[in-house]
Amino acid sequence: MRFSPDEDARAILLPAFDTLDIMDVMAPFLEKGGCSVLIGETRAEYVARRMSAERLARETPDSFRAAVARLKTVTPGLIVAVDQELGGIQRLQGLVPPLPSLDEAHALGDAALAERCRATAAAAHALGVSMFLAPIADVLDGQNAWLRGRTMGSYPQAVARLVSAFVNGVQSAGITAVTKHFPGFNALDGDPALVDVSLHTPRDRLLHNALPFTAAIEAGTRAIMTGPAPVAALDRQNAASTAPAVMTMLRNDFGFKGLIVSDDLDAPATMRGRSLLETAIASVGAGADLLLVGGGPHLDALCDGIADAARSGRLAPDRLAEAAARVRQNAAGG
To answer: Where does the Glycoside hydrolase family 3 N-terminal domain start and stop, copy by copy (predicted)?
Structure first.
């Protein structure tokens, strides 16, 4: 089946919302070719690393399931993503059995840990969720306000073991694991969601700390998310999510064949003074398949701009079509 650039432009976007009341915005997006949605958290919940008391009191498994079901009346094969991190943010807090604590995870054997992750994922799948933006594979061995309270350790081998068990567990329940944030951000001087900041870790240290990504790929992770800031050892100008060198490393050096997901393209360290449209075009042009963006009324104009770029040649039409096909394959369970 052939798709138009307008449909492909919508297929590659993963719009994020911090509420379940999104039908008015999402329905036209889905009707024109959208495939995905991120049901996320507020900035305050993100910073706190937990859901608010108000949300916990208001949301129930039934209300969450009903909101997803409404969206799926438009697009039955919709990718429904959430942040469900081992040791970090759990968007489904109070709605599904919790993932083990970090201390519990390190104490459990591989099979037992995978089973705990599978149980959480199975309950999420019953709510209509199909993708976890997790596990976090970054090895944090320096200061990093962005990832503090979200990572799984400071030793590559220990993190790799947890990453592998998580991927095996959640994907056995039908949930796509999105291992993040390639190539790994061990230390940052600021939060890339707030300021323009770069990673200055030498290449040999990057590769040393990248063991968890190798473990995730070996475990069959269906998706990998690139990071939101430039990695100076690979590309000083472009954030990982817009850098061809990072995508090439992931594809060629690490041998990853699955879905590449960008981090939030709205981040200052990713945009680096460009518009959101320019950043999106750069990201998909560099090799990303599914682009994480804030949801809202601007989606239509953003999609039109991406489609126009493909028609004019600023974005290779075949690259856009390839990205959209990979997203649709994931949505179909492939």
So the answer is: 61-328
